[in-house]
Amino acid sequence: MKRFLLFAGAWLAVVASSPIAHAEDSADDDGKLRIICFGAHPDDAEYKSGGAAALWARQGHHVKLVSVTNGDIGHWQMSGGALAKRRTAESAEVAKTLGVTSQVLDIHDGELEPTLENRKTITRLIRDWNADIVIAHRPWDYHPDHRYVGILVQDAAFMVTVPFFCPDTPALKKNPVFLYSSDGFKKPYPFQADIAVAIDDVFDLKVDALMALESQTFEGGAGGSQAYVDTVPPSSQPELRRAWLKERWESRAGGEANRFRDALIRWYGEEQGKDIKYAEAFEICEYGRQPNNREIRELFPFFPKAE
């Protein structure tokens, strides 16, 4: 009970003071695409989809990054409401830099379950955003929160169109395209890159945005330690700090580009595809709308026009 009261008080402060943007939640039909990306914690959607999100946003499309838990145990030194408030603010700052919207749900980190209540929450979020594209984790992963985000989004994939499920929120008239973000897990089957996005043009912007995730990038999150922090350039040296972070993301996003080179060539052509340095990749979920190549190019309008 003491933990709950402490958390509730701190969380009220988050709701009152957080710079999270909700102005786009009205989902007016302005002819632009609407993309909602679900991550388990306040960094997952940013890491996995931040580059594509920035590309969509640059063209005026609407992107929302949702953390399904509040990340309140995702640090080695602090926890509870204070950490939830900190990570919510970090996520909002990333979204501001990328030009997108963010939201962090009030569910304890490490305690997400695929319940009916949570399925309804995810369904309402997708409907409220009037999503054309929904991105989430695959439902097998080392972290139970990641797995259950995948399951919850899968479970919502049909229900978003059913009028009398959550009838208080109007059902979607069209089923979105549901995508998985990339991972390295092999069972029951490896990630398949149906779509790969070149993020070279926004790579530096993504690094700039991720600078705000200090609790994770520079302090190591739940797996960090003081020894880890001591290896990172201090906040008093922001240029060195950014160079340290950029080097790590060059390896990570560069690895994605090399791993999914065939998919990049498929969507960008041989000449451009072989020169792409940084990428994010997505797999089409067999639930939801199944797009053809023409529709994929419409949903990813930063792809070059097909010849």
Highlighted features:
alpha/beta, seven-stranded mixed β-sheet, Rossmann fold, 45% helix, 307 residues, 7 strands
List the helices and strands and how they pair.
Blueprint (H helix, E strand, L loop, with lengths): L1 H16 L16 E6 L4 H15 L3 E6 L12 H19 L2 E4 L11 H14 L3 E4 L7 H16 L17 E5 L13 E4 L4 H8 L3 H4 L8 H5 L7 H22 L1 H8 L1 H4 L5 E10 L4 H7 L8
Parallel strand pairs: 1-2, 1-4, 2-3, 4-5
Antiparallel strand pairs: 5-7, 6-7
Helix pairs in contact: 1-3, 2-3, 2-6, 3-6, 4-5, 6-9
Quick recap:
45% of the residues lie in helices and 13% in strands.
Write a structural description.
This protein is of the alpha/beta class. The chain has helices spanning 2-17, 44-58, 80-98, 116-129, 144-159, 203-210, 214-217, 226-230, 238-259, 261-268, 270-273, 293-299, and strands at residues 34-39, 62-67, 101-104, 133-136, 177-181, 195-198, 279-288. Strands 3-2-1-4-5-7-6 form a seven-stranded mixed β-sheet, with helices on both faces. Helix 1 runs parallel beside helix 3 (80-98). The longest helix is centred in the C-terminal third of the chain and has 22 residues, at 238-259. The protein is globular and about 50 Å long.
The gross shape turns out to be globular
**Number of discrete helical segments:** 12
Give the N-to-C terminal Cα separation.
Answer: 63 Å
Parts with pLDDT < 50 across at least 5 consecutive residues: 1-26
Find the CATH superfamily of the domain at 32-198 and 280-299. LmbE-like
Strand content: 5-15%
Overall mean pLDDT score? 92
Overall strand count: 7
- Could you give a short account of the major beta sheet? 7 strands, mixed
CATH architecture of the domain at 32-198 and 280-299: 3-Layer(aba) Sandwich
